[in-house]
Amino acid sequence: MGHAVPGCVLCEGEGGTLIWRGAHLRVIRADEAGFPAFYRVIWNAHVAEFSDLSPAERAHCMEAVACVEQVLRTHLAPTKINLAALGIMVPHLHWHVIARFEGDSHFPAPVWAAARRGRDLAHEARQMARLPALEAALCEALAQQPG
Asked: 19 with 37: CB under 8 angstroms?
């Protein structure tokens, strides 16, 4: 379990802008147009399913997901946080943690659905301006977690 798999985009690269890396997992900011506060918690070793992890590893992973969620809530006050672990297109364990806002182009539908309205570029720019402080707080919070 956990060896790199040739052709796996999350084994061969970070999967986005690296924000923090620990011994077992990393947090990246995804480059998803219209969603500046779209993060992923990615297990470093290649495993396909959450149940491939030991109970302690599962707890560590979910604590990281909750940490990302809490920092997003504190710094951005979104309408909702979306969590997803689909793994259909990329069968390498990762969680999507996405801050959602009532006025975003897809709300209340999933970010993968068709847009319901145009993008609010001013709102996105305000979110982007908050990301450096958010990501500094995120690194500090993740570094304090056991594991």
From this structure: no
